[in-house]
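dumping this here before i forget
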Amino acid sequence: MPNTNIIVAQSGGPTSAINSSLAGVIQKAIESNIKIYGSFYGIEGILNDEIVLLNNQFQKQKDIEDLKYTPAMALGSCRYKLSNSKKEFDIIINRFKQYNIGYFLYIGGNDSMDTVDKIAKYFKEINLDIKVVGIPKTIDNDLILTDHTPGFGSAAKYIATTITELIRDISIYNIPSVTIVEIMGRNTGWLTLAAGIPFFLNGLQPEIICIPEVPFCEKDFIKRIRQGITNNTPIIAVVSEGLKNKDGSYLGEDCKTGLVDRFGHTYLSGVGKYLENLVKKNIECKVRSIELNLMQRCSAHLSSKTDLDEAFNIGYDGLTNALKDKTGIAMVYNRISSSPYNITTSYVDVDLIANKEKKVPDKWLDIYNPKIQKEILDYILPLIKGNISIKKNEFDLPIYKIINKTL
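structure:
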């Protein structure tokens, strides 16, 4: 009997859109009348046999719609780096045989694509006919060969909205002050560009925008702060968590934990506090730092409908391609136009994406150039459009879809 069932898992950091991609995969599986299993905690769930049948939990279209608007990972996550040991691959193969798996879909970012790549190559090497497909996600927007990534649009919308509200907050006092806002993004500045949207649109604030692609100079930063507060003007600076000095070291590296994850990535954060202390040492004024932290990743109340709809479609199309015998691929978006906004989905070989980072393009590093600002707005604004309606309880608080691990 051929392997016919599907297994899907999620990995890496959460987003507002990753469950929408999961919903798309489940929708296609149900339409195709195929059993679909979910692995809790990513690839670790496959290794540890934490697997649940999903068909019976999504018998109604309402269940899929509720999942689509649920933030974070309904199947849980992991940051597990597969070794190339035969022992691990044997466990995965035996698990797939146990559940009669013919199709494996993994939803995640750069590191998850590494897992997809390793498994697909090993299966090909031993002539095992199990299709392996990667579905992209990451708020960092740093996967190459795709116009953008599911999750980025919603995170960008949350950040741009929060900065717009913060501008109103700090503008009420006629005293010199500095507010430093630390933005996620690891080693790329895509989300910090989203924080600059209020400035790009109306030319007011935030006055200072610092991204990792541009080496950071402390003297220039302090100079710009001094120039900005000469008229008792409140200053906002938005800074990426992964800012680096000219020598390539992370800004404030001495203040970081030095810890790395299983993929060798340094745990970032703390740059906002570092710069707050730097300003305090050099300038006498009111100064505070704000780290938006986890709220950037999956604040569903500010999700972009465009983002969630696209995420659903790329999950659906990912399984569609698997069922057409495509394997060792990662799904991507191709932008046809920005005005009117139009994209399509396609796929590339996953080894072209795995373990690579998409940086903000060099031509966009001239952030204060109005022409460049327009290009950035043309790129980001279509991705944040549209609001969603979340199911609420009697207290007007959100209700989200929970997948039962024991059913």
